[in-house]
Each structure stands twice: as structure tokens, then as C-alpha cells.
Design a protein that fits this description.
Elements (H helix, E strand, L loop, with lengths): L2 E8 L3 H11 L3 E7 L5 H7 L4 E5 L10 H13 L5 E5 L4 H10 L3 E4 L4 H34 L12 H14 L5 E4 L6 H10 L8 E5 L8 H6 E2 L11 E2 L1 H4 L4 E5 L6 H13 L1 E2 L8 E2 L3 E6 L3 H6 L5 H7 L2 E4 L10 H15 L6 E2 L1 H9 L5 H15 L4 E2 L9 H8 L6 H15 L4 H8 L3 H11 L3
Parallel strand pairs: 1-2, 1-3, 3-4, 4-5, 6-13, 6-14, 7-10, 10-13, 15-16
Antiparallel strand pairs: 8-9, 11-12
Helix pairs in contact: 6-7, 13-15, 17-18, 18-19
Length: 458
């Protein structure tokens, strides 16, 4: 079986090139040869080379190695991570050592023995893989540091609805099936995605989160597929995309329903091919990851309305997991409440606060349009405002609770009508400030804007 690797050999001796190619084609998946070193850049535009074998001299009668130094520098300028093995004559060893100080990885004397050549190239391929992995891990760690600003708590709940979700996570986690998580904002879709990763065979690899709702159309390809230096005005360095960051791990695409049809097509193409091209490059990069997606949109309705590609949905939802809203799992409210109380009592250096049974019962009647995220924000606010060790006023959690809860008891109103009223009331309380309203409701700004458009609230 051939070793996977792209090899490029540059030498002005055609016999050397053909001999090397005949031997190496038996061992590696791709071997290209070139006599003219001026054509090097063209090869790099179409393929990602694992190893480049470069002759030190090209003009007859010249053996000072200056040409080798020149083209070595050119290769490393194109790809700083390139692995270059120099082809040298016996009397040029000192030049090869100098070139290694400039960035060459190794050298081989000609005429060479085939097994020596093979061993040198195999070692070089391992070095190339290590370099690429270091670059990928560095980019991934940087992204994870950005993501770590968000806190992800344990999956909490014992209600029948949540127990079903937990059981499904255990079943699908063991497989490599693509998962689509459906649920309202604030229900914990990312926690489910992380739990799936923890139950998978890829648990020791990276979990990469992408909020598609926060990525503009112009940055979509750069963020997901990466870009090369000079691909556009602000591309001052190469950038590893999220697809590469997730290599061998799990890629979580949140807010998948936000993608335009044009971006859906690009995403589908990449997922089907399991290959990507960085922006500004024609090199194909193979990717392998577990795909988990999520949306709060009514995705099947979007397909019926031709707002979402059915073929992409088939690609995403080998298994669907439906997350219940908090109003359908009110038995979990005391558990969640105690969890958040413990967190914020420590954060604000307050004694552990308790909540009366009467307040808890009222909180169970509140519909929580922002779900667990809203409960979390409400609990933080209550801890900050609490003046005693016992909270006996529901108003510390929810503003004007009687008005809001009476809406919940009214059978004449639909959930959409209730949600519209809550949003309008919250907007008034925040003097029309969208950011403040979104925070109060436990929604993202993007999610709130979607609801404002949905209900015609301006």
C-alpha cells in the first residue's frame, strides 16, 4: 500500500528525475518532477506538497550552491512549513549544512541508494505532519481561549423529557453519525453537542464551536475554510479555518438555519467532498470530523418554503435530538435554580441563599421565553439584589410577574402571542434598547431581531 504523500523533485538532470520518479511512484501517492526551478511557484498553487527534493545547482559548471539557497528561500517564502530535502554531490556537504541552517530539513547525497532515499523521505513526511499539527493546534488553542469566555455548566435535569435526551445522547454518542439538535434559544443546545462529543470515540480530540449566526456572509468562507496570506486586503497571514481546527474531533455548527441558500450550497459541497480550499488557494485539504448542528428555526418548514436545502438537511440530520423548552420541564427548575444560586453566591461572595417554596412555585408558572439562559440571568440578578439569606419575593427574579404569569394561565392566547407580549413589555422596560432586552429575555441579539421581524415589532 502506498504512503499518502505529495512529493516534488526539482533537478536539471532529466535522468535523475525519471529514475527518482519511477522508484518513488511505487511508494507514494503523488510524485511530480520539474527541471526548471523557476516554475516552482506554479506547482505550489495547485498542490500541497509534503516533501520537496531540491538540487543545489542548476547551471552547468556552477557548484557554489547559490541557486539552491535562492530557491530554498523562495519555497520557504511560499510555504514557511515546507519540508525541503537538498540533493547534493559529495563535495557540497558543507553547503547543505549551511542550507539546513537557512531552513532546509535534510540532505541526501547523489548518487543515492533507493532505501536511503525512501527512509529520508518517510522521516520528512512525519516531520511535515508534525509541523502541520502544531500549526493546527496553535490555531485551535487560540480559538478555544476565545470560546472559553463563555461558561458551560453541567447538563442538569431529571425530568422525563431530559432523561430521554440523555439516553439518546448515550446512544448516538458512540457512533459517528451527524446530529441535528432542535430547540428554542437558551435550551442548552451547545451543552448537548459537547455531551455528544464527550460520549464519542473522538473525546480526546478537539471540540470546535461555530456560531453561524454571528458570521457575516463575507467572512463565512474565511472563518470555516481559512485563507492564505494575500487572499484579500486584510489577509496579512495564513489562517486555519474551523474545519481544519476540528480535524479528527467534533465540529459544532450552531444556528445552522441562519445560512443563506448560497452559503448552504458551499457548506454542502465541502461536507460531501470532505475537502476544502482555503480562500485564495486552489490546494485541496482533506478534513475528517464529527458534525453536530443546531438550530432554533423550524427547519422542516424552511425546507417546505425553499428557504433551506433538503439535501443539506439530509446531510445534517442522520439523527435529530429535540430539546424541550423550560416551560415543559418545570420540575427541573429547582435543580437549575440551586445550581445557579451556588455559582453566583460564590461569584458575588455572598452567603448561600435559599428561595422559599412559594417563590419556586411562582417561577414554575412563568413561561420562561428565554428558557434556561433567562433563568440563569434572572438568578444572577436576584443574588445581586438579595438583602437577606432567603428570597421570598418573586419580583427579584421576574419583573411584573403577576402580569406575565396571568398571560401564561390564559387559554385564549397562543405561545407566539405570549412571546410577542413578553418582548413588547421587555422593550418598554428597556426603553427600546435591543441589547438590554435581549439580555433580559436570555436571547442573543440575532435571535431577538428574528423575533422582532417575525412579530412585526419595530
Amino acid at each position: 500500500m502506498k504512503t499518502k504523500g505529495n512529493i516534488l523533485i526539482i533537478d536539471d538532470d532529466r535522468d535523475v528525475l525519471e529514475t527518482a520518479r519511477m522508484f518513488l511512484k511505487q511508494e507514494f501517492s503523488s510524485v511530480d518532477i520539474e527541471e526548471d526551478p523557476e516554475k516552482i511557484s506554479g506547482y505550489f498553487e495547485i498542490k500541497d506538497y509534503d516533501v520537496i527534493l531540491l538540487d543545489m545547482n542548476f547551471k552547468k559548471g556552477v557548484n557554489d550552491g547559490e541557486e539552491g539557497f535562492h530557491y530554498l528561500s523562495k519555497i520557504l517564502e511560499i510555504d514557511p512549513q515546507a519540508i525541503v530535502i537538498l540533493i547534493t554531490a559529495y563535495g557540497e556537504v558543507d553547503l547543505a549544512v549551511k542550507a539546513m541552517k537557512m531552513g532546509a530539513s535534510d540532505f541526501i547525497l547523489k548518487p543515492w541508494k533507493n532505501q536511503k532515499l525512501l527512509g529520508t523521505i518517510l522521516a520528512a513526511i512525519q516531520q511535515r505532519q508534525s509541523k502541520k499539527e502544531i500549526v493546527r493546534l496553535k490555531a485551535t488553542q487560540q480559538q478555544q481561549q476565545l470560546d472559553s469566555n463563555q461558561k458551560f455548566e453541567n447538563f442538569i435535569g431529571k425530568s422525563a423529557a431530559i432523561e430521554k435526551v440523555k439516553e439518546l445522547i448515550k446512544k448516538v454518542g458512540k457512533t459517528d453519525a451527524n446530529i441535528l439538535i432542535l430547540g428554542e434559544n437558551g435550551t442548552g443546545k451547545e451543552l448537548v453537542a459537547r455531551a455528544i462529543h464527550q460520549h464519542s470515540s473522538r473525546v480526546d480530540e478537539t471540540f470546535v464551536n461555530v456560531d453561524l449566526g454571528a458570521i457575516t456572509e463575507t467572512l463565512f468562507e474565511s472563518e470555516l475554510f481559512g485563507h492564505v496570506k494575500g487572499a484579500f486586503t486584510d489577509a496579512k497571514t495564513d489562517k486555519v479555518g474551523r474545519f481544519e481546527m476540528a480535524q479528527n474531533g467534533t465540529l459544532f455548527l450552531d444556528e445552522i438555519g441562519n445560512l443563506s441558500l448560497a452559503l448552504q450550497a458551499k457548506l454542502l459541497t465541502a461536507l460531501q467532498a470532505q475537502k476544502i480550499n482555503r480562500v485564495g488557494s486552489s490546494k485541496e485539504i482533506g478534513v475528517d470530523f464529527r458534525l453536530v448542528s443546531a438550530t432554533n428555526s423550524r427547519i422542516n418548514e424552511m425546507v417546505a418554503n425553499s428557504d433551506f436545502r433538503q439535501d443539506l438537511l439530509y446531510r445534517l440530520n442522520t439523527v435529530e435530538i429535540h430539546l424541550p423548552p423550560l416551560r415543559e420541564r418545570t420540575h427541573d427548575i429547582p435543580l437549575l435554580l440551586n445550581h445557579f444560586i451556588d455559582i453566583y453566591s460564590k461569584k458575588y461572595q455572598k452567603p448561600l441563599i435559599t428561595v422559599t417554596e412559594s417563590v419556586i412555585n411562582k417561577l414554575k408558572k412563568y413561561p420562561w421565553p428565554g428558557n434556561i439562559r433567562e433563568l440563569q440571568h434572572a438568578t444572577e440578578r436576584a443574588i445581586i439584589l438579595a438583602e437577606t439569606r432567603t428570597i421570598d419575593k418573586v419580583e427579584l427574579f421576574v419583573n411584573e410577574p403577576e402580569t406575565r404569569m396571568s398571560i401564561n394561565d390564559s387559554p385564549a392566547q397562543t405561545l407566539d402571542e405570549m412571546e410577542k407580549v413578553f418582548i413588547q413589555k421587555s422593550l418598554r422596560e428597556n426603553d427600546g434598547n435591543v441589547t438590554g432586552t435581549a439580555k433580559q429575555l436570555g436571547l442573543t441579539r440575532t435571535a431577538l431581531y428574528r423575533r422582532l421581524n417575525k412579530y412585526g415589532i419595530v
